[in-house]
Amino acid sequence: MDEPAAPRRVVIVGGGFAGLFAARALRRSPVTVTVVDRCAHHLFQPLLYQCAAGILSEGQIARPLRVVLRRHRNVRCVLAEATDVDVAARIVRARRPEGSELELPYDDLIVAVGMRQSYFGHDEFAAHAPGMKTLDDALEIRHRLYRAFEMAETARDPEEKRQWLTFALVGGGPTGVELAGQIREIARRTLEREFSTIDPGTARVLLFEGSDEVLGTFGASLAARAARTLRGLGVELHLGTRVTDVDARGLAVRDREGVTTRFDARTVLWTAGVEAPPLAAALARATGAAQDRAGRIAVEPDLTLRGHPEIRVVGDVMGLDRLPGLAEVAMQTGAYAGRALRHSAAGRTAPAKPFRYFDMGSAAYICRGRAVVRAGRLHLSGVPGWLTWLFIHVAFLTGFRSRLGAVLSWAVVFASGARRERAFTSPFAQARMPPPEAGG
Amino acid sequence: MDEPAAPRRVVIVGGGFAGLFAARALRRSPVTVTVVDRCAHHLFQPLLYQCAAGILSEGQIARPLRVVLRRHRNVRCVLAEATDVDVAARIVRARRPEGSELELPYDDLIVAVGMRQSYFGHDEFAAHAPGMKTLDDALEIRHRLYRAFEMAETARDPEEKRQWLTFALVGGGPTGVELAGQIREIARRTLEREFSTIDPGTARVLLFEGSDEVLGTFGASLAARAARTLRGLGVELHLGTRVTDVDARGLAVRDREGVTTRFDARTVLWTAGVEAPPLAAALARATGAAQDRAGRIAVEPDLTLRGHPEIRVVGDVMGLDRLPGLAEVAMQTGAYAGRALRHSAAGRTAPAKPFRYFDMGSAAYICRGRAVVRAGRLHLSGVPGWLTWLFIHVAFLTGFRSRLGAVLSWAVVFASGARRERAFTSPFAQARMPPPEAGG
After folding, report:
1. What is the pTM of this model?
2. Interchain proximity B436–A127, CB inside 8 Å
3. How confident is the model at residue A2 (pLDDT cuts 50, 70, 90)?
4. How far is CA B234 from CA B163, B223, B266, in A?
5. At the N or C end, where does chain A have fewer CB atoms within 10 A?
6. What residues of B are in contact with residue A98 (Cβ under 8 Å)?
7. Alpha-carbon dihedral of residues B189, B193, B196, B197, nearest 10 degrees?
8. CB–CB of A146 and B427 under 8 A?
């Protein structure tokens, strides 16, 4: 007698680990799923630094969302940037790349927009110190790293040479540590004997960190071992420092005693902090949800917003229990939200068990033969840590057709130092070619 | 009694096939070689379209010049753009990426700057119709191709959908034909079943060519077969047409009868012509050498400039005998010039035999299972042509570490249509990240 109800419409904002795992959990559910993202690809973020460092290609770490979700008949992918949520009308507003507006109506909303690089109120630093969150960032960093050695080679002034051979990294978390290790390995191994007027091995890598240790989240013992490994690699650690200025020639930092020191470095990379993208603030305004200082959205124990059981927030932008911004947290919260919706779509009304994070541990790669791994009480470093890192990453790339390619690329770089993806685009402005115009 | 003479200084402008083969020929010669190029890599140009089409990565077709020339102890690589030649003082002037000037003194100069895309006096077309000469071009085209299908998917207006699903290619030479084949294969095979609101297979590919045939340089019989294959693939050929206008929404063409027709297409790619870069005009001014209409420099039969036996011009920018702009010509002229210098450095004074091009033939890929190959009297098309193409390209990639990777990528795309390098950077302007500033 009743007309068959139209299937419930689930909109997932963000195609990172959280959004992807939410969509996957809804595969056999009688709902329609729309995944909207600013990029057409799902990015394997933990290996982004390897793309920046010239080991892996873009295609090896970024697969089209459509390909990843190809077998999910109920999923539609939309390339657009979500800009606002109309909570009353249950509509996500989004902007297409050429500027026109899209409206995506929903019955259930999963917000998985992730976090972006934060410059702590100094967005003007960004021009001089790219972050490490997107494929664009990785290609920009690849360009700057390899160009710096080229510039050092042709500089006549010894002081200019030194500046091009000095790399400053801001932030001592996994990404900063991984980049520091990569730059020293590029300098010592990859570029060995390629230059005439410089010895790339003399390149200085300075790592600035506000706290008293690198990789603090791994615990004091692994942090100390990581610091030892980094120093052994030739990375100069400047702990307890805060960056106060960045320009095209270097940066200024203040230490705990309030002394400000200037460091000349033509390459400055920024991995120091994250902040929520604008959509998080729009959502908080619309729903009255609280945000923490970085903009993460406070959620109920079942990841919904208070007063809005139809809205779930997952992944890095979710502010529950101060969980770290790890791929593992994103996957688990995304899958949890997707399962909750699946149960609800199946008519089960029992209240959901609160989300509980199952800590599988974490790993950070330092250099060939060295990584730190923390999994429960298990703390590994050095070669055992590295082998574990290798195993985890080969296993996790399983869904990726490029696993074989990645293993080959690693075999080459571990054995010989050669990097297969060093090519970068022209360092000269293309005068005749303005940026693509919106076709709108 | 005499002081040992300083080694002769050879400057090679350009690290393409011509410059590279010249440097290689000088490997064991008692000269110092400086290779100066705007890019840090040597580009395997014949496969550039595969990078644009998402089959190969940048690293698979572009290797750092330093790596390619690693074993050449007498070679120095310089990342800079040659801007002028002071013929009297024997100095090449160049600009480094941050703008400062470099002076490269030479005893012998080899000019191998290649040709760039020509818009026949309409440089304003470039913003709407990228060319296909550089890695930047290929990544730009990859971005536009895959973005177009995404835009078609989210367009609400059927007319806008049709425009995004229409691809116009200007130029019916090998690059235009290869791109036309790639786009139809992407539409029919790679993207099959990935979209909800469009059928990618309906994408129209329009190929505009000024003459009466595509691949005219392959001879009438192969040209006719190529046209048949393209039409069978669904490519619409518009022969005998000249493009009179290009904008963000399409292009206008005039046919032989003088009738102008407008075609709506949100993606327009340009492979129609080439012109010499500004250095060629600078060199012609300085030496009085003649240039042809496209700017190629007239040379003596031994590839030197009249009155300047110390300057040799090789590769695409050399105007001898109206030779075609093929990799093979570039390799042979580069190697010839390098050998001539090697003999001269070894003190042999016999006049060099004039350069003679040994035509090894040429090949153009159309689609899976279809290519045309011309080698002397041997004309192949269809599957035999394709197998020959495959053999030649695998063989020629020999020097490339990525040969295995390329073969794997081809195996995947031929077998399943899947393309491993579809990832493109963000289609949204990165508001916070201005382009890298010159650090000068």
Report:
1. 0.94
2. yes
3. low
4. 17, 17, 18
5. N
6. 151
7. 40
8. no
Could you give the CA distance from residue B207 to residue B230 in angstroms, rounded to a whole number?
A: 10
Chain B contact for A80, CB < 8 A? yes
Q: Least CB-CB distance to B194: which of A66, A128, A249?
A: A66
B214-230 pLDDT tens trace:
999 999 999 999 999 99
Please state, for a pLDDT cut of 70, what percent of chain B lies above it.
95
| H/E element, B224 | helix B220-233
Tell me the C-alpha to C-alpha distance, in Å, between residue B106 and each of B12, B35, B70, B92, B399: 9, 11, 22, 7, 29
pLDDT in tens, B50-89: 999 999 999 989 999 999 999 999 999 999 999 999 999 9
Q: What is the pLDDT of residues B352-384, one digit of tens each?
A: 799 999 988 888 999 888 999 998 888 999 999
- Confidence bin at A400 (pLDDT 50/70/90): low
What is the average pLDDT across A378-399? 83
CB A43 within 8 A of CB A134: yes
- Taking 70 as the threshold, does the pLDDT of residue B433 lie above it? no
Residues pairing with B235 in the sheet: B205
User: Looking at the complex, does the CB of residue A122 fall below 8 Å from at least one CB of chain B?
Assistant: no
B109-145 pLDDT per residue, tens: 999 999 999 999 999 999 999 999 999 999 999 999 9
Tokens for B302, please give them: 């031994």
Q: Which amino acid is at B269?
A: L
**pLDDT on residue A225:** 95
Q: For residue B63, list chain A residues with Cβ-Cβ distance below 8 A.
A: 422-423
Whether residue A292 is predicted with pLDDT greater than 50 in this model: the reply is: yes
**Minimal C-alpha gap between A154 and chain B (Å):** 7
From first CA to last CA, the distance across chain A in angstroms is 46
* Contact (CB, 8 A) for B280 and B113: yes
Contact across the interface for A64 and B146, Cβ inside 8 Å: yes
**What residues of chain A, 344 to 373, have a C-beta less than 8 Å from chain B?**
none
- Secondary structure of residue B267 in the 3-state scheme: strand
3-state secondary structure of B383: helix
The Cα of A101 is separated from the nearest Cα of chain B by a number of Å equal to 10
SS3 A65: helix
- List the 251-290 stretch of A: residues with Cβ below 8 A of B: 266
Question: Sign of torsion, CA A318 A320 A322 A323?
Answer: negative
Cβ burial B111-125 (10 Å sphere, 16+ → b, else e): bbbbbbbbbeeeeeb
Residue A99 touches chain B, beta carbons under 8 Å: no
| Residue A436 structure tokens | 């693509």
ipTM of the complex: 0.93
Q: Which residues pair with A94 in a beta bridge?
A: A82, A102
Greater confidence, A50 or A362? A50
Average pLDDT over residues B427-432: 61
Residue A185 tokens read as: 């390995």
Q: Which of A16, A113, A29, A39 is nearest to A75 (CA)?
A: A29
What average pLDDT does range B18-29 have in this prediction? 96
Q: Suggest the residue from A425, A430, A437 to mutate for an interface test with chain B (most B CBs closer than 10 A).
A: A425
- Degrees (nearest 5) of the Cα angle A391, A172, A278? 95
Q: Which one of A266, A423, A436 has the shortest CB-CB distance to B439?
A: A266
- Rounded to whole angstroms, the Cα distance separating A366 from B375 reads 52
Matching residue, tokens 């940048």: B58
Residue B92 has pLDDT above 60, yes or no: yes
Q: Which of A81, A140, A178, A275 does the annotation list as catalytic?
A: A178
Which residue in chain A is spatially nearest to B123 when comparing CA positions?
A: A432
- Provide the pLDDT for residue A440: 33
Q: Residues, chain A, total?
A: 440
Q: Distance from first CA to last CA of chain B, Å, rounded?
A: 46
Cα radius of gyration rounded to whole Å, chain A: 23
